[in-house]
Amino acid sequence: MAYSYDDQNIFAKILRGEIPNKTVMESDHTLAFEDIRPQAPVHVLVIPKGPYVTYDHFAGEASEAEIADFHRTVAAVCRKMGVTADDGPGCRFISNAGEDGVQEVPHFHLHILGGRRLGRMLQKAE
Ligand code: AMP
């Protein structure tokens, strides 16, 4: 089954300038902005400007230029926010996909979380 993209999702509206965002960084193919409900002192979302639903959708169908630009922006955001693991305290990258991944917004995004000790990645379900 192919992915279908809902252009009424909230990040599509942010990309069209219909709702505001706190931009951290922008490049040709990528936007990074602050999460509206931060779960850590650093909580930045990085999204491609193209219409991709999940990470695997993006990784499978985006152009080389979009993929390179996205990942270079991730690196630049980590540097800018001071959460690299080489000369800083590190961080966590998360990308939720679909139902089991409990994805809220159906536009691919990478969460960059840092600025505090984050604890274990997953906890056992009740
Ligand atoms: P996910 O469960 O990975 O789809 O997470 C979606 C994220 O988008 C959540 O962390 C929300 O807090 C965040 N979010 C939702 N609406 C906005 C918005 N208008 N601006 C910034 N972040 C948002």
Question: Your description of this structure?
Answer:
The radius of gyration is 15 Å and the shape is globular. The model has no long low-confidence stretch (mean pLDDT 96). Helices cover 25% and strands 20% of the residues. It starts with 9 loop residues before the first helix and ends in a 12-residue tail after the last strand. The protein is α+β, with helices and mostly antiparallel strands. The protein has a five-stranded antiparallel β-sheet with strand order 1-2-3-5-4, covered by helices on one side. The chain contains three helices and five strands. It has a single domain (10-114), classed as 2-Layer Sandwich (HIT family, subunit A), CATH 3.30.428.10. 23% of the residues are buried. Adenosine monophosphate binds at residues 10, 19, 21, 35-37, 45, 96, 102-105. Adenosine monophosphate is lined by residues 10, 19, 21, 35-37, 45, 96, 102-105.
Observed structural traits:
126 residues; HIT family, subunit A; five-stranded antiparallel sheet; 5 strands; binds adenosine monophosphate
Q: In summary, what is this structure?
A:
This protein is an alpha+beta fold and 126 residues long. It is built from 3 helices and 5 strands; from the N terminus they run αβββααββ. It binds adenosine monophosphate (AMP).
Topology:
Blueprint: H1 10-15, E1 23-26, E2 30-34, E3 42-48, H2 55-61, H3 64-81, E4 91-94, E5 110-114
Bound molecules: adenosine monophosphate.
Adenosine monophosphate binds next to loops.
